[in-house]
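Input.
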Amino acid sequence: MEKEVLYEVAYFIMNNPGKLIRFLNSQGYDVPMSATTQELNDIVADGLFNPQFLESLIKFIAVNDEHINFIVAIATAVSAIASAISGMVINAKMALFSRQQALKAGEYNKEVVQWQKDQAVLAAKKGMSIELSRMQSEMILDRDIQEEKQKSKRNITMFGMFAVGAIVLTVVAKKLTD
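Output.
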């Protein structure tokens, strides 16, 4: 379920940047209307680590996105992402606890522990942003493939109509000369 929810969030970011920017600004962010999709991905990826932001975002998407029947899945989606984030937080706390134990033993200092924690959080946020971008790229590629298929069908149809027209003209000309 987690990937489906992330896919829907990526779809919404890509297709509704204005709505998303207004939402983010209502949440206290200062996002210019000219923000790029990547900038929005980074902001949303950062916000996904905040359960209140996550719940607000999913409710906002459910109300504002017509392409999905997302309202039924809100509770499941919030739960799935929250549990994934909770797992990350638990792992980070366990790592921090281990490091603190090592610190007490004199193996690490506080600055190293904080730096490692910051790096882990930064890597998780960057990974989320990259995943959103990857999904959006797949959506664009799928859309382009669909458009090319439609073009091919139109071209074949037009060629077929031209061929039938040429045959009909030949038959009519032949009958007129006979």
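Residues 2 and 80 are 6 Å apart (CA to CA).
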